[in-house]
Amino acid sequence: MPTVVATIIPLAGRLDDVEAVLRDLAPQVHQEDGCEKYALHRGRDRIVVIERWRDGAALGAHGQGPAIKTMGQRLAGLVSAAPDVQILEPVEAGDPARGRI
Amino acid sequence: MPTVVATIIPLAGRLDDVEAVLRDLAPQVHQEDGCEKYALHRGRDRIVVIERWRDGAALGAHGQGPAIKTMGQRLAGLVSAAPDVQILEPVEAGDPARGRI
Fold first, then answer.
1. What is the ipTM of this complex?
2. Are B35 and A97 spatial neighbours (Cβ–Cβ below 8 Å)?
3. Would you call A35 and B101 a contact, using CB atoms and an 8 Å cutoff?
4. Mean pLDDT of B57-79
5. Nearest-CA neighbor of A22 among A66, A63, A75, A101?
6. How far off is chain B from A63, nearest CA to CA, in Å?
7. Is B57 an interface residue toward A (CB < 8 Å)?
8. Of A76, B7, B53, B71, most Cβ neighbours within 10 A?
């Protein structure tokens, strides 16, 4: 059950544009097989997506799928680097209601 | 409803030790007022905590509270830098069941 934290840092002044791209594509990603969470967040200078996938195969298919391809095309010119993608595994601890996303 | 992504990068060979500290303290954090999520994750070289707090006041109290103080004491010698703490706000998009943590 991989969890992903993907960080996208826009070029100066393009945070709203990057957020709009991610908002547009979220419904399509939510319909992908094995997508359990794909939750957008905004920081001062970045968009961070917190994701949870059923398994590594579902995450792999997402990475090769049409939504990511469109995203890459639409983010060109709005960012200076590829997203930072951290692939993580949950660690069980404490209260399950609070200890899992 | 602030969301936090806190990244802790251990010194070489100390990932298991850092994970143990966070696991020990998670139940205490889960009982703090306003803690909605405090979910531990492990990557190849890091521990990442994904957190959600009721409001900024609850997050502020957590940052000044006894669990964080103990954590700082126990992590001394296991890490070379303070955690990277990103404070974010959720962006609503798509299916609410998948679009929020």
1. 0.95
2. no
3. no
4. 97
5. A75
6. 17
7. no
8. B53
List of chain A residues whose C-beta atoms are within 8 Å of the C-beta of residue B47 = 91
CB contact under 8 A, B39 and A90: yes
Closest-CA distance, A77 to chain B, in angstroms, reads: 22
Cβ contact, residue pair A38, B86, below 8 Å:
no
DSSP, collapsed to helix, strand or coil, labels residue A94 as coil
101 residues of chain A, pLDDT tens digit each = 899 999 999 999 999 999 999 999 999 999 999 999 999 999 999 999 999 999 999 999 999 999 999 999 999 999 999 999 999 999 999 999 999 99
A14: three-class secondary structure by DSSP: coil
The alpha-carbon radius of gyration of chain A (Å, integer) is: 14
pTM as predicted: 0.96
DSSP string, B15-51: HHHHHHHHHHHHHHHHTSTTEEEEEEEE-SS-EEEEE
Cβ partners under 8 Å of residue A44, min gap 6: none
